[in-house]
Amino acid sequence: MNKKEIIELLKNNDKELFSRANDARKKYTGDGIHLRGLIEFSNICKRNCLYCGLQSSNKNITRYRMSEDEIITAAKNCTCKTIVLQSGEDDFFTTSKLCKIIEKIKENDVALTLSIGERSYSDYKEFYKAGADRYLLRIETTDKNLYKKMHPKASFENRKKCLYNLKELGYETGTGSLVGLPEQTIDSLADDILFYKKLDADMVGIGPFIPHPDTPLKGKLQTANFELALRMMSITRILLKDINIPATSAMETINPNGRIIALNAGANVIMPNATPLKYRAKYEIYPNKICTDEQPEKCDICIKSKIASIGRYVSEDKGFRTKNN
Ligand code: SAM
Ligand code: FES
């Protein structure tokens, strides 16, 4: 698929794209759905990403950090085969603190994903040695000018470099985009997909942008972002075939059936929230996040019944990418 074809598919209203992606998902990854339990362990962030509710300029958010014990206990209580540790860029969590947490969690029979932003090559190396298996770092947008506007003082080149460092170190590397940012073009979205391909991303998470009222990008929710994010996701499945693709919580936030629709359009992963209930609502990257007041057991039942309703099943393995193309 070349850029022109990707643009055509993004612009088109054709629903056949979703069934093509669903066929590719079935052929290359099967019917199993991998559950990755997400622990949002700190909402403290030194960055100021314009779109994000955790940005350091947001004074209306109550900040929290989970203790080491709380993080390890949350991981232990989670029944998923993969634990995802996510946070803002919080320097309190030094390399050695994080390595200790990683080692403890890896005493359980789980895969471990980190999603803690940009760190140095040597930090990534230490985390990998401590047992981290995967890393999620969305490129957000490959439009350099837009990237600059959205991320004051941050560097697009460094974010890209981080992704290549992660790949080189042996991590299963995940990236992805925010879809529907102001001034984002279809042309740049096509470039995003080609970037995932060039990186040979092992995971791609695509989320619709949802404006947060306490950020400079506050404004009306654009429900059209859902369809566009879905089209991005489906094309990514067709092009990258065997990778892992989540049905993102942001999709379900702007469409009550969003994750099921995504699972039927190329996705094969769900990330249930495994953050202790008292912290969940405080990790408000965008408003009206789903599952902020659900007990983990209820979440579990809800997700499993949704999966069963579409004739799929929860995978028993850790869900590493099986190169198949
Ligand atoms: N600090 C880490 C990083 O930069 O990768 C991980 C945490 S960050 C909150 C996780 C993801 O949230 C980002 O990659 C971004 O795409 C998404 N996000 C932030 N604000 C959002 C918004 N307003 N709407 C939808 N997704 C958003
Ligand atoms: Fe840091 Fe969003 S600005 S996590």
Description:
Helix content is 42%, strand content 13%. With 325 residues, it is of the alpha/beta class. Strand 2, helix 4 and strand 3 form a beta-alpha-beta unit. It is globular, with a radius of gyration of 18 Å. The structure holds S-adenosylmethionine (SAM) and FE2/S2 (inorganic) cluster. FE2/S2 (inorganic) cluster binds next to loops.
Helices, by number, come to 13
How much helicity do the residues have?
Answer: 40-55%
**Helix/strand order, N-terminal first:** HHEHEHEHEHHEHEHHHEHHE
- Mean pLDDT, all residues: 96
List the helices and strands and how they pair.
Elements: H1 3-11, H2 16-29, E1 32-42, H3 68-77, E2 82-87, H4 95-105, E3 111-115, H5 121-130, E4 134-136, H6 144-150, H7 156-169, E5 172-179, H8 186-199, E6 203-208, H9 224-240, H10 249-254, H11 258-263, E7 269-270, H12 277-280, H13 296-309, E8 313-314
Bound molecules: S-adenosylmethionine and FE2/S2 (inorganic) cluster.
FE2/S2 (inorganic) cluster (FES) binds at residues 45, 47, 49, 52, 54-55, 88-89.
